[in-house]
Amino acid sequence: MNINMKAAVVAVSAAIGISAGMATDDARAQAGAPIKVGFVTELTGPWTFFGTSCVAGLKFATDEINKAGGALGRPLEFVIQDNQTNPSAAVAASRNLDVNDKVVALSGPTSSDTALAMYGYAEQQKIPFLVPVAAFPQLTKPGTKYTFRIEPNAAGWGYSIAKFLEQRKPGAKVALMYSDAALMRAIVAGFKYQAPRSKVNIVADVLFPQGSTDATVQAAQVKAANPDYVIVIGAGAFDNVLTNQLLDLGVKPEQIIHPYGITSQVFGWGQRSAGSIYGTFFDIGLDSLTKEGKDFISRFDSANSRPPSYVENYCYNTPYILKEALQNAGSADREKLRDALSKLKTRELTSGVPIEFDKNGARKEYMYFMQIVSVDGKRTYKSKQIFYNEWDAEVIPVYDLVK
Amino acid sequence: MSLLEVSALSKHFGGVIALKNVDVQMRAGETLGMIGPNGSGKTTFVNIVSGQLRADSGGMRFDGHDTLGRQPHELARLGLTRSYQAVRVFAGLSVQKNIDTACLLLAGEGLARAQLQELTEWLRLDLALDKSAGGLTLFEQRRLELLMRLAQRPKLIMLDEPVGGLAVTEVREMILLLQQLKARCSIFVIEHTMRVIRELADRVVVLMAGEKIADGPPAEILRDQRVIEHYLGTVHA
Amino acid sequence: MSDATLLILASTVSTGLILGAIFALVAAGVTIVYGCVWLPNASNGQFFLLAALAAWSLTGAGWGSALAIIAVLALGIVLSLLLEWVLIRRLYDVANRNVAYFVVTLGLTQIMSGIFSLTYGRWSDQFTLPPLVAGITMIGPFPLPNNRIAVLVIAFGVLAALFALLRYHRYGRALRAVFQNREAAALRGVDVRAIYKLSFLLGSSIIFLGGLLFALAYSFDLTVAWTMSVTAFAIMIVGGPGSVVGALAVGLVFGFTQAIVSIFASPTAATFSYLAAMLAILLFKPTGLFSK
Amino acid sequence: MNPRHLNARNMGIALAILALALPFVLEGNRFLAFVFGMVMINVLWASGMNLLYGYVGLMPLMFAGIAGIAAYAMIYLTRSFGWSFWLAMPAASFGAALIGVLLGLPSLRLKGFYFTLCSLVIQTVLTLAFIFFPHFTNGDTGLNQIAPPEWFNGAPLAGLWFDLVLAIFAVAGAAFCAWLVPTRLGQRFIAIREDDVLAAVLGINVVRNKIIAFFLVSLYAAVGGCFYATYVGFISPRAFDVLTSLNIWLFVAFGGRGTIIGPIIGAVILAPIPFLLQELQAFKDVLSGVLIIVVTLVLPGGIYGELLRRRALRRAAAQPQTGTTAAPRT
What we know:
The structure holds four protein chains of four kinds.
Chain B lengths: L1 E12 L2 E12 L3 E5 L6 H8 L7 E6 L2 E2 L5 H7 L1 E3 L12 H9 L9 H10 L15 H13 L5 E5 L7 H14 L4 E5 L3 H7 L2 E6 L2 E6 L1 H4 L3 H11 L2
Parallel strand pairs in B: 3-8, 3-9, 6-7, 7-8
Antiparallel strand pairs in B: 1-2, 1-4, 4-5, 9-10
Helix pairs in contact in B: 3-5
Chain C lengths: L1 H36 L6 H17 L4 H22 L10 H23 L16 E4 L2 E4 H23 L1 H11 L1 H6 L4 H26 L6 H16 L4 H21 L2 H18 L8
Chain D lengths: L2 H24 L3 H27 L6 H19 L3 H20 L1 H4 L2 H21 L1 H4 L5 E2 L14 H22 L3 H11 L1 H6 L4 H27 L1 E2 L6 H14 L5 H10 L2 H4 L7 H14 L4 H17 L12
Antiparallel strand pairs in D: 1-2
């Protein structure tokens, strides 16, 4: 079974063009059997880009940690499995890692749908579950014991956008265009809750089913409503379609707000989007980058010929968080690790943002808003930080807003 | 009283008229033949009477019931069944299974083993029981078709060209069988081969382009001038 | 305000036309193969996607859109020939082959979609082709990309050519003869198997073209294949198997339905309406609306 | 009595004993035990699909959709009204079976490809409905933490005992088919499969029998769906999409349609693949696609059907030719 498992790791890593050889070989060199963590993420399917980016970030950290002696004197080994962006597959993979590989913890999903599926399994089987990049609020709903989420919840993002607009243009008229997915529903729910309280008026609200490919008509509707800002949340390439069709219609880049932006998206929006605003949790344009942060960016860039975004950053921090928790727990025991995680008080290596989890495993919320300065093909882009705010997850009734 | 009573039956497919005001009466125990050139509406007639097609207009009574628009399986229960020009048996099943399936209709009050045995031997299928029906010769299949119908104790059986495609010797045998069949139930038979009609039918109906042009004993029908010029001329070749 | 309504009107019409034309093309391809060869190809959506993906790869490799399109069409013809030779012709004489073939092509669908998610899955959020023609034409307040105008022109051009072919060319007459009655056609000395082969080629090439045009006009992901398969079948059934006129008319209707529905409801409502229409036709007029 | 029947019956009994014994054997390894449970659910499904596809000759591609309806309904009843699983499951299944009958009505008018296409459309509509009416189904995100059925003492059914319950239902499902086929009803089904026009002429009410068949097959789908949901603990629309229907169909076609043993063999061989070969996850669609084509073109009888055919040929060869091949002449 072990051979079998190694084969899986190698096959998968090969599939994403990163050699898992290094990590595991180092592991052999280390004293003591590796501490296994199940990493179930999107290596195929619609969220592939997030999954592969995440694994890229993860690799950096695991290599560093294992070179520096691992955790508890044992190497950290992330057993990576593909969930095809399919919740059922995610559950199957989790079960396999739990029973066959006896992993101490689960991690990995970057899509809320797969994360929710694993959440159910982890909570039922009492396995610590560290979610790097999945923002659906219910992942930390009251009563959650084993799930910890590094990314702020998406309803909060919506709240944050409303706060941003309140400060930027009181009484702003806003149009919403978004795809129908758990993440998008949550963002919009948070925004719609906070909008009236922040004196923001919603003048158009357009929902697209998954797999939509065109928005000509809807863009025209939005343009006709003549808003000050358009919040665009398309799934995958559809985000570019929405953006381009709005720009074609003469909407100004400065009017377009993307709740979240990772590198590939920024490149996708392109130079014509210079001036648009996007939310994020880590960006090469941040004011508060630590030395490790700058270092990570430059090394990631030279390795992947593109700068990292918050996805890579969270997955880069995940092994460090686990390492610290394991050290505090003093043993690779699931219950001990869970307690250690809930007590953890630390900071993100790369940006110095504090990391602590509340009783539900939710994190102290925060968000940056960046403005695109320039986009240079698929190689680099420039952005500047224009807004930052922090808030407590339950400042809005987040768990009632999104079921 | 008459067993089958069809009055002013009409049917058209799109623009084509298949049947036009056809009246046919049939007494119990009688054997009625129907002749006519290809496309004269013979098979359409059988399809309608046996419930497989809906008539556009007209009346239909069988054994005292109004049967216009009744489903085939209802008619089967009333005792009206049919055979097919292109013989139709469950080719995928064994002969025995074919017979069993036919016997499903009359649960308790079905034929006794002995009667079934007698039928099977009469139609000389007793040795073929566990062969696949698809593997039988055409003649054997026609006999099986008969056996399956008779197993249901029909009052009227409508035969659509029962000797079609059979070899000369087989035709002779079939006619023999059918003559014995007359003792068992009333027969309505469509045929091309004059011989069958001449030797079987008590009475003949002639269809021409969907209309009944003659109705009477074979002998005089076969003398009928119109029939000869329109039909017999074309067939004897 | 009237400017706003004009804006919405123009966008609706243009979308309806483009979608409709592409639907019509694909449905025509499906209906020709089914109506003539009696083979319902469930994997047509995958062919459609294959064309789009191939074009995406080629343009990604630096080819110009026009060149890529021609190359993909050629590839499509070769592939269809291959498929016809390996698989399809084995079914020409199978009794009730339409079920067998439908199932086989469902299998083919699974194979192709599996391969696509393996090969293209990891990029699957970034499929857009560079435009064939640059620039934007203003229709009143509404900006219509010239690229989409080009797509529209090509689509209708091909549809017109298809009509001419079926109406006036010798092949077209033979094809219609086979549509109506295989045996009779065979008796009249038409080489039925040759017609089958030609129709399969023609049909799948048209589907390929449909995929290319769709990729040009819109961005796409791997899910478009299944949607297109179902839509194409819906159009074929409603329009009447074998009726290219039906494919065109119903295709346009569906295209406009989608465009109009998306003004006041989610486009899903459109999909539901297609399927509902299809079921209704299947149940109450299986021959379709335009069948002779 | 035809020896093949005896033979098949023995095989069936052996399989049943095996099914009821394995949970105890596998208790050590929860993963293999889980795979076993999934196989049992699929055996149940395959037997149901076989009832319609194998014996009535219709290919219901909306099978998974019906399973989905039952699963969602069952969860709704347990969560919103606090019903016990053992109450909600039969209720939901019965309801789903009635819906299955409604969805089957087209088959009374349509034949062959048109029916298959129609059932495909219905399946697509159901999948869309599961995705786009989230207040019941929570959309593409799916429902998780589905509570397992409660045991007699109220404790949640789990581990060995859950596997055992699944085994019992699977065996019961297959046994019911085995009992049904020789009955008059089963014989009518077969007649309709072989030639429904002839069946009607022989007095069989095709419409009524098809409706009965649809009710039964939907019941199988529904019960399987309820157990699937509680056993996996998570469902999403994808768990009940057309690919699932096709896979279940493949179990039947690959094993051998129209036999009791065939579909079981098919499910036992094919169902575990995606679990045991995690590395092949991505390839499993390709694999089943290839199998579908192979079965349709090369092995229409399935492996068990092929086996029976071979055996029949051998027997025929062994027997001396009786005089019945040619029609006796007078």
